[in-house]
């Protein structure tokens, strides 16, 4: 059209008019707008692109034309559309009316037929209950003709007792118009028989204000009967299921329909309202069994076969249920499979089984642990009816094999076999009762087991013993333990006796005190002390003692020891015998406690040490006397040494004086020589010290000091002695040679006393050589250590020597060859050396002269 | 060991002929030895100290005036024994004995042996010093005499035997004639010999010669 317009060079208005016509034509086609658009757009496009001069909107005259065109096209289109629609409706309504009239007629007839012959009883009653209408089927069912019922109360066909219910139901229907209500009720036929119906009732408006109730009744007598039977059987089943804990289920695989019985729900612990699915089963299945269950089901699905399986459930509360399921597969006509099965909760059975199994295991374990086997012996067939695993172990039987009586006998110690047979025979004869016996088993490997057996005979129905039932207990260990115990007891008895012997040998009496320190037991095994047990039992030690007041400190300490529960040793106290004479008792004791550590008292021994004490006292006095004597002789020796001592002191003193003079000389020079003077003074000091040292030594010797045993080096003592007697040696023209072994072990001794001994020996040596003129007077002092680690000291002179006769007497007191002196020297020396644990002797020698030597034990020996 | 090491003044050598006197000290006591050495040195005496007689004998005595301060009691060789020993060796050193406890027999023996002094401790140091000075003086004199004699002796030894015989006879107071007769020589010969002797001996006079002869102890040959 556009091209045409272009061709014709028509005016815009003309063109527009052409388009309007087109549009109107198209609107008649029922689809105006898209058609119009379809035309206008290409028109506009073409006009714009190809024919701008023609299509010029710039012309103001064209604008009203365009507007008019648009309005005219829209209005026209609308009007055309409306006319078309109305025409169509009118045609349709006329056709429907015609159809419905015919249909109505057909339908009414049809409905009447349906109503009359519908196998459902239809009643129509008015609100008072009067039957307005009833279908033929309904009346027939009740044994009436419809006319017999119409116009009568509907209650007539109901049981007397149901009538109020019916009235109430009808009332309800009337109250709730339009709503249907259903109930089941019995109806009475004309012949008086009863039928069950299911009534479906509904009230509805009938012709304006009239209400009618329509009731449709379905004969459900058969169903009811079936239902009752079904319900009964269901109840039975449910009960049976509940009792047997068996749930049943059905599963239509194709439809996925699943049915579970109540018990099944209970077993799986799902709410009965839950929709059961196979998945629920799997959900509850124990994770360990899940795969197996799935597999079983899948296999059954595949093979369409019955199956039976056991699996466990893991319940939400964590408990485990054991289930046993038996499932049948039913192939349906449609080719679907339906599984129907029963699932039984066998948890209790499983548990019982497990328990049984466990108790069996416990029993076996118990038998194993207690080495007890149980058995049952058939006395007729002479074989084990039953023997526990432990029996096999005890006898070394193969559990898999039967054992013959010979085998059994071969395992029994030959010595025990006759008695064993006798016991069995006796038991069988006695017909019942328990009997016990012991025997030994000899195993093929030579091992022996001691068995204690307890058994009893079982009397059979014939009144004779049929079986012996008993246990064998391996008492080898116990036997060995008992033997060990007996040995230990014997050893204990022996040990006790031994210790008693020791104690009795080492003491005079044994005692025991209680926690309050009072004597509870007292056994005197020597009557020497004369203390009567009866007199001391119940007393405290400090009640027995007689020196508590005299020595309070000693007793205080003793009681502190007891309070501290400490052992005490060699506690010495004084008491009196029953004769009244004083005795000294040395007591040692040790606290003893019960198993819980409670203090029970002290046990100990005591000894009468009166004699020892007396001897000690005597020895102490002797020692004292000896020390005195040693002192006296020492002082005497010092007297003898006076000249030497004086010289020893004079020497440094003279030197001091001389050095003093010299010092003055040095200072008095024209130029005083100060360094020489200083040197002189230093020497003066040295000499002064030397002089005082000499005096100290002398004083030590002269002093009457207590014996002081200290570790000393004998060489040091020798050197001190030499210092003391040097002058004596010189003045007697005696040359001294010392052979002192270096690094001698220390000895324990009193410095002064050892000095005294050596001084004495040296002085004796000097004196012995006084008359010697023909040979040099030489004195040798030697110190050495022997193989036993003892220290030797020898003083040798070359003097007149000692005759054989004198050799025995030189150590005697008052023996002397000198005109002066006490003659105590060597005697004292010997006692001093012996007090040091050593010995002093004369050594034989070939040359003229004599050697005196002494040996002193080591420091260690002395202290130990 | 020697007492020299104790000296505050080292370097005094016993052998050194210094013209000074040297004092020998023998004492076994180191204090004494040391103090005595100190004392002598303080009065400008040289000292040689020893701990024992043997030690001293091992050394050489110097050709100077000296004396020996000796402890009587010594270890080994005693003081008195050393005195005897020295005498045997013809060593005429004056000895001063010191002793801690002098006893009469010992001192007598010592004095008999020619000791200069015998001091008993305690003695005053001045006493000792005096004794030492006296002893060294005596030694010095003795040494001078000995020296003179030795000179004369050496001169005498330069004489021929005949001259010596002449000198002996002249010193004995014989006349030339008598000498000639004695020696069976001519008198003139004797005169010549006598003149030679006088000259060789350095005698200024006959009296001088006679004194020399006396000193030499050759006048003992009495004429028959």
UniProtKB/TrEMBL annotation, chain A:
<feature type="domain" description="PAS">
    <location>
        <begin position="233"/>
        <end position="304"/>
    </location>
</feature>
<dbReference type="GO" id="GO:0000155">
    <property type="term" value="F:phosphorelay sensor kinase activity"/>
</dbReference>
<keyword id="KW-0547">Nucleotide-binding</keyword>
<dbReference type="InterPro" id="IPR000014">
    <property type="entry name" value="PAS"/>
</dbReference>
<feature type="domain" description="PAC">
    <location>
        <begin position="307"/>
        <end position="358"/>
    </location>
</feature>
<feature type="domain" description="PAS">
    <location>
        <begin position="107"/>
        <end position="177"/>
    </location>
</feature>
<feature type="domain" description="PAC">
    <location>
        <begin position="569"/>
        <end position="621"/>
    </location>
</feature>
<feature type="domain" description="PAC">
    <location>
        <begin position="435"/>
        <end position="487"/>
    </location>
</feature>
<dbReference type="InterPro" id="IPR001610">
    <property type="entry name" value="PAC"/>
</dbReference>
<keyword id="KW-0597">Phosphoprotein</keyword>
<feature type="domain" description="PAS">
    <location>
        <begin position="359"/>
        <end position="431"/>
    </location>
</feature>
<keyword id="KW-1133">Transmembrane helix</keyword>
<dbReference type="Pfam" id="PF13426">
    <property type="entry name" value="PAS_9"/>
</dbReference>
<feature type="coiled-coil region">
    <location>
        <begin position="475"/>
        <end position="505"/>
    </location>
</feature>
<keyword id="KW-0812">Transmembrane</keyword>
<protein>
    <recommendedName>
        <fullName>histidine kinase</fullName>
        <ecNumber>2.7.13.3</ecNumber>
    </recommendedName>
</protein>
<keyword id="KW-0902">Two-component regulatory system</keyword>
<feature type="transmembrane region" description="Helical">
    <location>
        <begin position="32"/>
        <end position="51"/>
    </location>
</feature>
<dbReference type="InterPro" id="IPR005467">
    <property type="entry name" value="His_kinase_dom"/>
</dbReference>
<keyword id="KW-0997">Cell inner membrane</keyword>
<dbReference type="InterPro" id="IPR036890">
    <property type="entry name" value="HATPase_C_sf"/>
</dbReference>
<dbReference type="InterPro" id="IPR003594">
    <property type="entry name" value="HATPase_dom"/>
</dbReference>
Automatic annotation (TrEMBL), chain B:
<protein>
    <submittedName>
        <fullName>Response regulator transcription factor</fullName>
    </submittedName>
</protein>
<keyword id="KW-0805">Transcription regulation</keyword>
<feature type="modified residue" description="4-aspartylphosphate">
    <location>
        <position position="71"/>
    </location>
</feature>
<dbReference type="InterPro" id="IPR001789">
    <property type="entry name" value="Sig_transdc_resp-reg_receiver"/>
</dbReference>
<dbReference type="InterPro" id="IPR000792">
    <property type="entry name" value="Tscrpt_reg_LuxR_C"/>
</dbReference>
<feature type="domain" description="HTH luxR-type">
    <location>
        <begin position="152"/>
        <end position="217"/>
    </location>
</feature>
<dbReference type="Pfam" id="PF00072">
    <property type="entry name" value="Response_reg"/>
</dbReference>
<dbReference type="Pfam" id="PF00196">
    <property type="entry name" value="GerE"/>
</dbReference>
<keyword id="KW-0804">Transcription</keyword>
<keyword id="KW-0902">Two-component regulatory system</keyword>
<feature type="domain" description="Response regulatory">
    <location>
        <begin position="22"/>
        <end position="136"/>
    </location>
</feature>
<dbReference type="InterPro" id="IPR036388">
    <property type="entry name" value="WH-like_DNA-bd_sf"/>
</dbReference>
<keyword id="KW-0597">Phosphoprotein</keyword>
<dbReference type="GO" id="GO:0003677">
    <property type="term" value="F:DNA binding"/>
</dbReference>
<dbReference type="GO" id="GO:0000160">
    <property type="term" value="P:phosphorelay signal transduction system"/>
</dbReference>
<dbReference type="GO" id="GO:0006355">
    <property type="term" value="P:regulation of DNA-templated transcription"/>
</dbReference>
<dbReference type="InterPro" id="IPR011006">
    <property type="entry name" value="CheY-like_superfamily"/>
</dbReference>
<keyword id="KW-0238">DNA-binding</keyword>
């Amino acid at each position: 059209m556009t091209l045409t317009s272009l061709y014709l060079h028509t005016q815009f208005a003309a063109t527009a008019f052409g388009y309007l016509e087109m549009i109107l034509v198209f609107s008649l086609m029922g689809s105006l707008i898209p058609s119009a658009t379809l035309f206008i757009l290409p028109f506009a496009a073409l006009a714009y692109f190809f024919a701008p001069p023609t299509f010029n909107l710039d012309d103001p005259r064209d604008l009203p034309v365009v507007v008019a065109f648009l309005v005219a096209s829209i209005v026209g289109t609308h009007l055309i559309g409306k006319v078309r629609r109305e025409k169509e409706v009118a045609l349709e309504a006329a056709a429907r009316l015609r159809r419905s009239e015919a249909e109505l007629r057909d339908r009414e007839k049809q409905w009447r037929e349906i109503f009359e012959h519908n196998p459902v009883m239809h009643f129509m009653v008015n609100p008072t209950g009067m039957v307005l209408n009833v279908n033929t089927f309904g009346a027939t069912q009740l044994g009436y003709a419809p006319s017999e019922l119409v116009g009568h109360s509907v209650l007539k066909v109901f049981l007397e007792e149901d009538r109020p219910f019916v009235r109430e139901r009808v009332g309800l229907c009337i109250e709730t118009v339009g709503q249907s209500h259903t109930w089941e009720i019995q109806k009475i036929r004309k012949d008086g028989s009863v039928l069950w119906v299911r009534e479906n009732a509904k009230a509805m408006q009938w012709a304006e204000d009239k209400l009618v109730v329509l009731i449709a009744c379905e004969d459900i007598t058969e169903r009811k009967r079936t239902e009752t039977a079904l319900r009964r059987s269901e109840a039975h089943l449910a009960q049976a299921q509940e009792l047997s804990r068996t749930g049943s289920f059905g599963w239509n695989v194709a439809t996925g329909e699943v049915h579970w019985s109540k018990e099944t729900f209970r077993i799986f612990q799902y709410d009965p309202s839950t929709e059961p699915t196979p998945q629920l089963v799997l959900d509850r299945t124990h994770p360990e069994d899940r795969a197996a269950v799935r597999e079983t089901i899948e296999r059954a699905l595949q093979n369409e076969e019955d199956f039976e399986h056991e699996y466990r459930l893991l319940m939400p509360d964590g408990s485990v249920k054991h289930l046993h399921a038996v499932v049948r597969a039913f192939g349906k006509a449609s080719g679907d499979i339906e599984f129907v099965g029963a699932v039984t909760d066998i948890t209790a059975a499983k548990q019982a089984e497990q328990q049984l199994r466990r108790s069996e295991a416990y029993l076996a374990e118990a038998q194993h642990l207690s080495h007890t086997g149980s058995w049952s012996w058939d006395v007729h067939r002479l074989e084990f009816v039953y023997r526990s695993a432990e029996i096999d172990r005890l006898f070394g039987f193969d559990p898999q094999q039967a054992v013959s009586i010979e085998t059994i006998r071969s395992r029994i110690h030959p010595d025990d076999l006759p008695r064993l047979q006798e016991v069995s025979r006796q038991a069988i004869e006695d017909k019942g009762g328990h009997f016990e016996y012991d025997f030994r088993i000899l195993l093929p490997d030579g091992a022996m087991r001691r068995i204690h057996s307890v058994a009893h005979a079982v009397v059979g129905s014939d009144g004779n013993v049929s079986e012996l039932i008993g246990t064998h207990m391996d008492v080898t260990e116990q036997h060995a333990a008992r033997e060990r115990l007996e040995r230990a007891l014997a050893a204990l008895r022996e040990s006790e006796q031994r210790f008693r012997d020791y104690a009795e040998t080492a003491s005079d009496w044994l005692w025991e005190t209680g926690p309050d320190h009072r004597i509870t037991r007292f056994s005197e095994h020597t009557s020497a002390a004369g203390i009567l047990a009866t007199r001391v039992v119940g007393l405290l030690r400090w009640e027995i003692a007689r020196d508590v007041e005299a020595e309070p400190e000693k007793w205080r300490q003793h009681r502190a020891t007891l309070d501290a529960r400490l052992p005490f040793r060699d506690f010495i106290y004084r008491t009196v015998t029953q004769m009244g004479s004083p005795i000294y008792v040395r007591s040692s004791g040790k606290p003893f406690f019960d198993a819980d550590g409670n203090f029970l008292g002290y046990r100990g021994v005591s000894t009468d040490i009166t004699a020892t004490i007396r001897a000690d006292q005597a020895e102490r006095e002797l020692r004292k006397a000896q020390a005195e004597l040693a002192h006296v002789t020492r002082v005497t020796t010092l007297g003898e040494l006076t000249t030497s001592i004086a010289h020893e002191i004079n020497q440094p003193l003279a030197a001091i004086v001389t050095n003093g003079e010299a010092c003055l000389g040095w200072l008095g020079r024209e130029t005083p020589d100060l360094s020489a003077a200083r040197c002189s003074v230093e020497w003066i000091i040295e000499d002064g010290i030397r002089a005082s040292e000499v005096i100290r030594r002398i004083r030590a010797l002269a002093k009457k000091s207590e014996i002081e045993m200290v570790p000393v080096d004998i060489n040091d003592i020798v050197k001190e002695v030499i210092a003391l007697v040097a002058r004596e040696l010189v003045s007697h023209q005696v040359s001294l040679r010392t052979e002192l072994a270096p690094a001698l072990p220390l000895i324990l001794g009193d410095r002064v006393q050892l000095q005294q001994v050596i001084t004495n020996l040296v002085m004796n040596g000097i004196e012995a050589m006084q008359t010697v003129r023909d040979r040099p007077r030489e004195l040798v002092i030697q110190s050495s250590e022997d193989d036993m680690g003892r220290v030797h000291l020898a003083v040798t002179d070359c003097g007149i020597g000692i005759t054989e006769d004198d050799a025995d007497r030189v150590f005697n007191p008052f023996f002397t060859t000198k005109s002066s002196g006490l003659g105590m020297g060597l005697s004292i020396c010997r006692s001093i050396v012996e007090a040091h644990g050593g010995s002093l002797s004369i050594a034989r020698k070939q040359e003229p002269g004599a050697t005196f030597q002494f040996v002193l034990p080591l420091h260690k020996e002395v202290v130990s | 060991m020697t007492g020299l090491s104790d000296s505050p003044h080292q370097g005094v050598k016993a052998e050194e002929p210094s013209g000074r006197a040297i004092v020998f000290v023998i004492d076994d006591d180191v204090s004494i030895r040391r103090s005595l050495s100190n004392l002598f040195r303080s009065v400008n005496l040289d000292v040689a100290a020893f701990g024992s007689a043997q030690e001293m004998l091992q050394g050489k005595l110097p050709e100077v005036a000296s004396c020996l301060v000796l402890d009587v009691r010594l270890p080994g060789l005693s003081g008195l024994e050393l005195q005897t020993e020295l005498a045997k060796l013809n060593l005429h050193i004056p000895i001063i004995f010191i002793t801690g406890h002098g006893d009469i027999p010992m001192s007598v023996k010592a004095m008999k042996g020619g000791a200069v002094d015998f001091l008993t401790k305690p003695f005053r140091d001045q006493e000792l010093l005096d004794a030492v000075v006296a002893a060294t003086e005596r030694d010095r004199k003795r040494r001078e005499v000995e020296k003179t004699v030795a000179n004369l002796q050496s001169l005498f030894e330069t004489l021929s035997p005949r001259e010596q015989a002449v000198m002996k006879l002249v010193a004995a107071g014989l006349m030339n004639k008598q000498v000639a007769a004695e020696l069976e020589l001519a008198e003139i010969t004797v005169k010549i010999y006598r003149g030679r002797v006088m000259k060789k001996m350095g005698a200024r006079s006959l009296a001088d010669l006679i004194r020399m002869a006396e000193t030499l102890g050759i006048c003992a040959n009495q004429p028959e």
